[in-house]
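Predict the 3D structure for this chain.
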Amino acid sequence: MHQCVIPAKKAARPTEEISGEVARVIFRTETFTIAKLSTSACDPFADDITFKVDAPVAVGEAVTLRGHWETHKTHGRQ
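Done. Predicted structure below.
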């Protein structure tokens, strides 16, 4: 009899939603943008959040981000 072992699925990373305003564009190419999101309107004590998006964004633009957190070796939680 042949046995088939199916590996367990990895647990999905939790998805979060954060809204705010683009405070600063750090880097931009034709295919993606890295920027800082200000959430100070919701929480005046919150730090700006670094994010990467596969779209152009501009300073002052209101955006809603959906995704999961990653920890960059040099730049920390993003």
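Residues 40 and 46 are 6 Å apart (CA to CA).
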